[in-house]
Amino acid sequence: MSSTDWQAVVLTLQLGAYSTLILLLLATPIAWWLANQRSWLAAPVQAIVALPLVLPPTVLGFYLLIWLGPKGFIGSTLESWGLNHLAFSFEGILIGSVIYSLPFAVQPLVESFRQLGKEQLDVAATLGAGWWRRFWTIVLPSCQGGFLIAATLSFAHTLGEFGVILMLGGSIPGETQVLSVLIYDHAEAMNYGAAERLSLGLLLFAFTVLVSVYAWQKRAQRGGRLC
Amino acid sequence: MKLWVLWLFFLSSSVWAADLTIAAASSYRPLLTELAGEFEQREKVAVRLVFGSSGKLATQIQHGAPYDLYFSADDSYIQHLQTSGYLSGEIITDGYGQLVLWSAKADLLPESIERLSEMKSVTLAIAQPRHAPFGKAAMRVLENHQLADAVEGQLVYAENVAQAAQMALSGAADMAFVAVSVLPFEARDDNQLLVLPLSDERLLKQSHAVLRRADDLNLAIQFSQFTQREEFNPLKRKHGLMPGNRAGASNE
Q1: Which of A8, A102, A122, B205 sits between 20 and 30 A of A201, alpha carbons compared?
Q2: Residues of A in contact with B17 (CB under 8 A)
Q3: Number of folded domains in chain A?
Q4: What is the pTM of this model?
Q5: Which of A11, A90, A188 sits opposite B163 (nearest CB)?
C-alpha cells in the first residue's frame, strides 16, 4: 500500500473514532428522551433523527456545503470571528458524519432504554441517588449492549460514507480523502489494483463488524434482554 | 489497545499538512503526477493533488476549497475565476488538449466522425458537457456535424473525462470521447483512436493560475514557474498537451 493509502486509512479511522465519540455523547440524551417521551413532539424529533436514512447523501452534502462554506450563515459567522469556514476541511466532514450516522447511534439506544426496568431507577432515586449517579451505576452497566451496538454501527457507517464527504469535503489527501473517496479516485486513475485492495479491506471489515453486532444481539436475546 | 486509540486522537490531521495543494482537471493527472513528484524531490516540499472535472473544481474554489493552484482544461472556467477575483497573477497557457474518439475494439472505430450516425447499436461514453471540458468539446464536435440528435440516445455520461475513458477501457461502453492524456500509453494505438479537430481554439485550452487565497503564495508561484520550464516540453507532449494554437490541427 502506498503512503496515500495509509494516510487515508488513518484519516478514515480518525473520522470514525471522533464521530463515534461525539455521536454517543449526542445520541444518549436524545435516545433517553425519545424512549420516555409520550408527547406529540416525539414523532417529529424521531423523524428528524431518521432523516439521514431516507435522504440522498447529496441533499445533506449540498445543504452542509452551502451552510458551512464561506458564504453560508455558519461559515461566514465563523469567519467573522476570525476562524476558518468548514467546507473542504476535516472538521466539516466530521460534522457531516455525525449528522449522517445519527440514526445508527440513536435507534439501538432507544431500543435499549425502552427495555430498561424503571423500578430499579425509581428505587435508586428514593434512596437519594442523583440522575448522574443513576446513569453511571444503573443505565450504563445494564444497557452496555445497546451502547456497544450504537458505537459499532456508528463507526462502521461512518467508514461507509461517501456522498456527503465527496460533496462537502472534496477529495483532499490527508484532510478529506477518506478510504471510500480514495477508492473512487483510484478507479478514476485506472489504478485498479489499489482500488481492489482497499475495497476488499473495507468489505472484510464491514462483514466482521456486522457479524459481531448480530452475534452480540443474539447472545443478548438469549440472555433475555438487549440492555 | 488504549494507547493506540489515544494516539489516534492526538494525531491531528495537521501531521499531513501539505505545503502545496493543487486542484487539476482530470486530463492533467499523468502530467502533474510526474511534475509534482519531481518538484517535491527537488524542493523538499510536500505537494498534494486533487483531480476532478474543471467545472466541479472551479465551483469548489468558489465555495472556499483550500487550493493553491488551479489547472483547468477549459478557458471559460479559469476566466470566470479571474473576473470573480479568485486568481492571483495571470493565467498561464500550458498547451492544448487533444480530443479523440477511442474504441476498445479497433474494427468498431468509424473512419470518420460522420459515420457515427449509421452506428445505432454502439454506446458512447462522454464526460458531462455541463462541467467537464472534454465533454463540452465532444458535444460541440457532434453538433458541428449535425450528429447530436442522432446519437443522443447512445450517449452515457461520466462525471469527468477520466471516468469516460474508464467506461470504454473496461468495456462498459463501446467507445468514449476522451483526452489522449487520460489513456494509458498501451491504449494509444492509431487503429483505436480517431482524432477530432476542434474549430474553436478556446475549447480545451489547458491553463493554470495561482489562487489568491494560496497559503504560501511564493511557493505556488514557484511551482507555476517550474511547470513552465522548457525541459518539460517533451513531457507535456507525451501526456497529450499540444503546443500548437489549434487542438488537433497541430497533430504532427
Answers
A1: A102
A2: 174
A3: 1
A4: 0.85
A5: A188
